Each structure stands twice: as structure tokens, then as C-alpha cells.
Amino acid sequence: MRASGRADFGGRGSREGDPNEKAREPHSAELKLQTALSQIDSPNKKRLLTFHKLLKTKKVPNANGPNQRAQRHRAGWSPIGEMEKVNLGGPMKGSNRRRYFTEAELGKLISAARKGRYGQRDATLLLMMARHGLRVSEAVDLEWDQIDFTRAHLHVRRLKGGIASVHPIQGDELRALREVRRRATGAFVFASERDGGPMTRSNVSKMIEAAAKRTGLPYAHPHMLRHTCGHLLADAGHDTRRLQLWLGHADIKHTAHYSELSAKPFKDFWK
User: Does residue 263 surpass a pLDDT of 90?
Assistant: First the structure.
């Protein structure tokens, strides 16, 4: 007769159906995260818990394969995207934090970037992103054949289904770009010094954060430069339809947010 305490293959045989069996304990990493979340005392605690729950239930593409980034991209999943859904602060809808730089702050940020190790490249990158409303991916993918130095034109290729367009390039941009081109060795305008390939999004984010820290700005993010472009042009009185074409928005409702933030329509109030 088999002993009552003996189990088959890892003890599963004797425990199946046992009502006293304890629920599966969470993985150690998950347990640590739960403990850390329970100790948070901030207004964002509820949103962080929501984000944690969402990640547990969301099916994430395989992160161990050789093409993990491509898999996540095709599946349309990203941690940042999921964070935006639950509004974890930062430059997102519903946040009280200002999502753009003033003209004075932009000037200081560019000046601070110029003092870095790759100052000319970095300062020119910030200038182009702010003038043309470039997303960080559009900026790092910019190639020399998109720039017509003779006619002073920039051929902008938009992502996310945006509208491609041709922008005029101002004199200070041309001078900065020519200086960058003197040191260029590859096809990309804003290239990595290591291999000549394009800068990464991470490189740009770290560079902007470092420049903001030197300037004394409390917060800086690459996408704020695109918002800065929209805000400054709307505040200068440009109509929404032309602003839509400049920023490449497929839907004008996204452009309307910049006009809503402009003080220009109210300049004659109380006069």
C-alpha cells in the first residue's frame, strides 16, 4: 500500500483537489514589485497600481527572440504606451505639467546643449526639432538627401501616418547644418560618433535631460520640442489649417489643441 504522504512526480499526485492547498505564491520579482507599490505614498499610487495590473493582464510579445523590438513594434505594444493609458504623469493628456518650452527656455536649452561633448550636433538637433516639429524618430532618421541647401528646403518625412511636406529652412539652421555636414561621414544628419549610424532615441533623451539640468529646467522630454513648435506658431497667430500642414497631422483635431493654448485670440481683451 502506497504511503499517504508520497507524491507522484514533484508531489502533484497527492495534492490535486486538496482544498487546503495554498494558492500559488507570486514570483519573487512580482512580490518585490507589489511590496514596493504598497509602500508608495504619492498621488500617483492609484495610477501605478492600475498600470501594474494592466501589465499583468496584457499579452506582451516575446521579449527573448532575436527580433524582439520588431515584434513589439508590429504588435503595437510598448510600456510607454501602456503608461499613457493610465496617465502616469509626464507630458501626457490630463497632466498639469506644461508640455512645451517658452521661447526663452528653448534658447537656454539649445545654448546648454552646445556646451556638451558633441555641442554643434546636439544644438542643431534641438533647433531643427523645435522649428519643424520633428518627432524624435523623425529627427534621428533625417538624412542629408532630405536637405536641399541650394533652395534652403527640408523634405520632411512624417511617421504615424502623418502628412509629408517641404519646409523652408531659416538662415541660422542652414549655417548650423553646414557646420554639422563638415564633420559628417555617413548618410544621417544626426549620427552617432561610434559607428556613423543614427543617434538612438535614448541618446537624444539623455542629451536633452542633461541640457535641461544644466539650464535649471525641472523637466524636459524630446516630444516637448514638437509641442513647443506647435505652441509658438499658434501663439504667433498662424491659422490651424496651415499649422496642421506644418506639423503633418492627418487629423486637424490634434492641431486644434495648440490653438486652444494660444493667448493670441484674447490679446484685445480688457482694452
Answer: no
**What are the Cα distances from residue 246, in Å, to 25, 73, 104, 234?**
54, 26, 22, 11
Q: List Cβ<8 Å contacts ≥24 apart for 144-148.
A: 144/181, 144/184, 144/187, 144/188, 144/189, 145/187, 146/189, 147/177, 147/189
The verdict on residue 46 lying in a domain is no
CA–CA dist 207, 122 (Å, integer): 8
Count how many residues are written for the chain. 271
Rounded Cα distance, 185 and 206, in Å = 23
- Residues in CB range of 84: below 8 A, 6 or more apart: 92, 93
Give the CA radius of gyration of the chain. 25
Split into its structural domains, the chain has a count of 1
pLDDT by residue (tens digit) across 168-216? 999 999 999 999 999 998 999 999 988 889 999 999 999 999 999 999 9
**Does the residue 251 lie in any domain?**
yes
Residues belonging to the active site: 135, 160, 223, 226, 249, 258
pLDDT value of residue 88: 38
Q: What cell numbers appear for 178 in the block?
A: 553646414
Would you say the C-alpha torsion 116, 211, 167, 91 has a positive or negative sign?
A: positive
* Inside any domain, residue 13: no
Residue 182 CB neighbours (<10 A): 8
Could you list the residue range(s) of the whole structural domain that residue 199 is in?
103-264
CA–CA separation, 206 and 203 (whole Å): 5
Rounded CA gap, 178 and 149, in Å?
9
d(CA 220, CA 208): 7
Q: What stretch of H or E contains 136?
A: helix 136-140
pLDDT at 259 (0 to 100): 76
Q: Is residue 18 part of a domain?
A: no
